[in-house]
Amino acid sequence: MPYIDPHIHMVSRTTDDYARMAEAGCIAVTEPAFWAGFDRSSPAGFADYFRQLTETEPHRAARYGIAHYCWLCINPKEAEDPGFAREVMALIPEFLDRPNVLGIGEIGLNKNSRNELVILEEQIEIARRHDRLILVHTPHLEDKLKGTRLILAALRNAAVDPGRVLIDHVEEHTIKTVLDAGFWAGMTLYPDSKCTPQRAVDVIECYGRERIWINSAGDWGPSDPLAVPKCHVEMRRRGHGPDLATQISLTNPLTFLSQCPNFRPAALEPGWLSP
Question: Measured between alpha carbons, how far is 52 from 50 in angstroms, rounded to an integer?
Answer without folding.
Answer: 5
